[in-house]
Amino acid sequence: MVNDGMRYAFVFPGQGSQSQGMMNGFEDLPVVRETFREASDTLHQDLWRLVTEGSAGDLNLTINTQPLMLTAGIAIWRAWIQCSDSRPSLLAGHSLGEYAALVASNAIAFEEALPLVRHRAQCMQEAVPEGTGGIAAILGLDDETVKRVCLEASRNEVLEAVNFNSPGQVVIAGGRDAVLRGIEAAKEAGAKRAIMLPMSVPSHCSLMKPAAMALRDYLKDVIIGKPEIPVLHNVDVLPHEDPEEIRKALVDQLHHPVRWVETIRSICREGIGQVAECGPGKVLAGLNKRIEPQQLVWALTDRAALEDASAKLTGG
Asked: Which of 76, 87, 120, 178 is positioned for an S-S bond with 174, CB 3.0–4.6 A?
């Protein structure tokens, strides 16, 4: 018997959660393979082969990562739909994951979202040529210290705090040399760790403004409807129903920070104490637990985890 009174949220991961073999544990679910076939036919690229046989370099290339992570998130979402009558009360996605959240909410059709995120990836890559940008995680410093480090290490280059992922974990991005200086400055300021991330573009910093303008033009022709489940957007931590507001949120997201700490706290303020990560890996589950330690978190990493979460989240 489904417990209709159980309220929970789903969150979708973005770039950085991809890994070789990331769909292991789902390969025997027909809906997962069918979702990958649909995406592969739409994009004329064998995404299942990429996820099962691709090198780390192939997976980390933005133009591959974005459609791959969207497909993985929607494949697991569809698997959830098959095993549960229940639906989340709220959705959110980390950066690219916001697109999966919008597809899950039926605001954007999957077949439209696939070329959309590939175009987004191309815009991002063209805005900052391979090897000229950088992105790094800073662990163990508060937000204001990271912002100060960026200001001092920038030397008139772009260097900005772009992902506020959890207390003590902030991502910085900008020109590659500036990011390298930022890593050293963060260590000098007392960071526990400061490391480059496996991403080929510096997402969410002002270097992405040209990409955002190109994305804006593309989005004019994308059909967007009212989400059937509210989606909290990265840029303002608000749900939007109007298609034009959703378009604006997606454009602004490219060159503004991901406010993940605020997102998870907003979910908790809504009285939702259970959150499931719908996608490969456990990155968001780990972040969410640090943001709200009392929150019950789930990571739908394989079929067994999916079935366990379905039983416990929905009372089924």
From this structure: 178
